[in-house]
Amino acid sequence: MQVFIASDHAGFGLKEFVKEILSKLGLEVCDLGAYSQDRVDYPDFAQKLCESVLATPESRGVLICGSGIGMSIAANRFSGIRAALCTDSYLAKMARLHNDANVLCMGERVIGQGEAEEIVMQFFGVEFEGGRHLDRVRKLG
Q1: Which of 26, 64, 107, 134 pairs with 37 at a CA distance of 20 to 30 A?
Q2: C-alpha pair distances (Å), 139 with each of 58, 79, 82, 113
Q3: 8 Å CB contact between 64 and 32
Q4: Beta-strand relationship, 103-107 and 2-7
């Protein structure tokens, strides 16, 4: 599976850590930046990632900023993107099972590496249940 990942300056450190986890899971990782801790604007990176996910069927994305809030707001402006801000592994599991989330958002200033690893493992280890949830997801556009 192709996974696009991006962050702003505040999420750069966690992005580098998450890239390693995704690679260990055998996923094809494409880093869309930021490439340093120099100040950048998160909406630019959310747009780049969302356009990549939408153009690549069956792909998913990971967006990281300081809190995760800005990235999730920016990502959910794109029709076809279902971005979920996850602060624990239960939320990541439910985002996939019930909402077919295709973009995971996290905040480097909110969670540590251990929690981030658990979140990533759930988000990429669980598939959408479909069934009664499919009609609800379709209503999202």
Answers
A1: 26
A2: 19, 11, 12, 34
A3: no
A4: unpaired
Chain-centroid distance of CA 82 in Å reads 9
CA atoms within 13 A on the CB side of 65: 19
Q: Any catalytic annotation for residue 105?
A: no
| Spatial distance between the Cα atoms of 8 and 41, rounded to a whole number of angstroms | 6
Q: Does residue 98 have an active-site annotation? A: yes
CB-CB neighbours of 57 under 10 Å: 7
> How far lies 52's CA from each of 93, 118, 137, in Å?
23, 25, 21
If DSSP codes are grouped into helix, strand and coil, which group holds residue 63? strand
Q: pTM for this structure?
A: 0.96
- Please choose, from the candidates 15, 70, 6, 8, the residue with its C-alpha nearest in 3D space to the C-alpha of residue 38: 8
Q: Which of 50, 65, 86, 105 is catalytic?
A: 65
